Amino acid sequence: MDPQLLEMFAQARALVEEDSRRKAEDEQRRREAEREGLLQDLARRVEAAFDFTSREKLDLDPRMDVLDGRGVLEFVVRSIRAIFILSQAPTGKWGLQVAEDNQPLALLVEMEGGQDTNSRRLAAARIVTTIGDWAAAKEQSTMPAQPAGQRRAAPAPAPPPPQQMKPPPTKTPPPPPPPPPPVQEGQRKAPPVPQFGKVFGY
After folding, report:
1. DSSP 3-state assignment of 49?
2. How far apart are CA 110 and CA 87, in angstroms?
3. Is residue 166 part of a domain?
């Protein structure tokens, strides 16, 4: 191909690429400005509706993000693989959803935000309570269940201590029979009395 044609094509391509790059940078700046505006508006609305304590903010780790073109507040609970998303509907109500791995978004609660100091604190407490109840139920469901009606076997009672064997009582031999009276002259001698047991031939 003619070198002059190659140079012309290269110049035209460079001009088109420069225009595309400039448009992409402008679009990126526009998106960043829109995102920043959404996050600022979200921060203002959350601050006006909820009063989270410093400990709740520390433990729940709230993060502002943009989801589907609207600002949302995300809570991350340690040791639980789930994200809780707080967002405001066009009706003004706030909804708390939970996102799990491979599960669709589930709505946990829908409520009004607070208007004054007390109601703002109460609204934040309701959000925290809902997250805590869901986390406790999730942890309970993952524990191995014990079959119904099955009871733990009671430990076998310990055997009683061995008793010392007592020697059998010794039988004292019966006293010997009294000697027969002396036989006087003219009397018959009485027959001897057999001992017990020998009468039966034992």
Report:
1. helix
2. 10
3. no
Instruction: Give the Cα separation of 121 and 52 in Å (integer).
Output: 7
Q: What is the pTM of this model?
A: 0.61
Query: Could you tell me where the beta strands, DSSP code E, fall in the chain?
Result: 63-67, 70-76, 82-88, 94-100, 106-111
**Chain segment 72-103, per-residue pLDDT in tens:** 999 988 777 889 999 999 899 999 999 988 88
Number of independent structural domains in the chain: 1
Residue 54 lies in a domain: yes
DSSP letter for 116, please.
Answer: S
Does residue 37 lie in a domain region? yes
Diameter of the chain measured on Cα atoms: 182
66: nearest Cα among 100, 40, 97 = 40
Helices (H) and strands (E) in the chain, counts: 3, 5
When the pLDDT of each residue in the chain is averaged and rounded to a whole number, the result is 81
Q: Specify burial of residue 86 (Cβ count, 10 A radius: 0-12, 13-18, 19+).
A: buried
How many whole angstroms separate alpha carbon 7 and alpha carbon 21?
21
Whole domain around residue 79: which residue ranges? 9-140
> Within a domain: residue 190?
no
